[in-house]
Amino acid sequence: MVDYLATNTSFSAEPLNWHKHPGHELLFMIRGASGYHFEQGEEMELAGGHFMVIPPGTAHRGVREIREPSTVCAIILDSRRKGEKNGVFTTGEQAWMRSAFSAGIPLSRPMTPAMRQTARRLHESMVRHGQHSGEDHALLADLRLHAASLILHAAREILQHERVSPIKVVERAKSYFVTRYAEPVTIDAVAEHVRCGRTRLYQAFKKETGMTPVDWLQRHRVGKALELLQTTDRTLMDIASAVGLTSAAYLCHIIKQYTGRTPGSHRRAALGE
Predict the structure, then answer these.
(1) pLDDT tens per residue, range 48-93
(2) Alpha-carbon distance 137 to 84, whole Å?
(3) Residue 187 contacts by C-beta under 8 Å, 6 or more apart in sequence?
(4) Under a CB-based contact definition with an 8 Å cutoff, are residues 77 and 2 in contact?
(5) SS3 at position 29
(6) What is d(CA 235, CA 41) in angstroms, rounded to the nearest whole number?
(7) How far apart are CA 127 and CA 238, in angstroms?
(8) What is the dihedral of CA 48, 50, 54, 55, to 10 degrees?
């Protein structure tokens, strides 16, 4: 089922020439990050803890600077073989996994903790294999086991993302925001929590709410800040910290942005002034 297996650790950006493969290419970014440019003009970043599926025959190259150091494992599926009776997986299982990768566009998804651990083990096994002079059957068995496990996990994750409706994606993200709004929140963390990519998260939010995830989070923070302004005498800096903002000045800015009024006017109105 696998045509090619490789791993690489880079400390500098070395642009790759345009290239493509006859089978699906699975890239597992263990740490660091790199960007990829596709022939259709799209650019995608592959950050640490994420994996990417590149369809067969899709010309692509690496672009942008690599965040140092960057470690990635690559698995290229063999397009010539549709299934083998004596492989790790049955022919039916192989067909199921290939169907999971059948989207005609490049996809990027967060890895689960189990996938990250397996990707690290695959990388370590390949490094040992490269340093070993003879044929080590145990090491080769390790390589097959970790590669097969990553392919299986990747297929499951893609199908899991496809099953989650946009409404469910938004509901889970909102729940995450409501419980974490007082903390620093990154979109990557939210996407990983709801088990979808950044692009799908943004698309789902725009479709279901008309807002971006960041816009929804900021509006929620403003609502919580207004509650504190109207019911307590806490300082603006104290309120900003309580709702996950970095400064009193920024709190004043987003309250004015979303309500058209200053924090002081909201507080005075609550006091009946």
Answers:
(1) 899 999 989 999 888 765 666 789 999 998 866 655 556 678 888 8
(2) 21
(3) 198, 201, 213, 214
(4) yes
(5) strand
(6) 49
(7) 51
(8) 180
What domains can be seen in the chain, in order of their start residue?
2-163 (2.60.120.10), 165-273 (1.10.10.60)
User: Which residues, other chains included, contact 25 with Cβ-Cβ below 8 Å and sequence gap of 6+?
Assistant: 53, 54, 74, 75, 76, 77
- Indicate if the pLDDT at residue 169 is higher than 70: yes
pLDDT above 60 (res 225) = yes
Query: What would the two tokens of residue 129 be?
Result: 């294999």
Tens digits of residue pLDDT in 3-47: 778 888 776 555 667 888 888 999 999 988 888 888 877 788 888
CB proximity list for 194: less than 8 A, separation 6 or greater: 164, 169, 172, 173, 176, 201
Q: Which amino acid is located at 133 in the chain? A: S
Is 97:84 a contact under the CB 8 Å cutoff? Answer: no
171 Cβ contact list (under 8 Å, min separation 6): none
**Separation between Cα atoms, residue 108 and residue 137, nearest integer Å:** 33
Amino acid at 250: Y
Helix residue ranges per DSSP H, the chain: 91-100, 113-131, 137-163, 166-180, 187-194, 198-209, 213-231, 236-242, 248-259, 263-270
Q: How far, in Å, CA of 29 to CA of 116, rounded?
A: 9
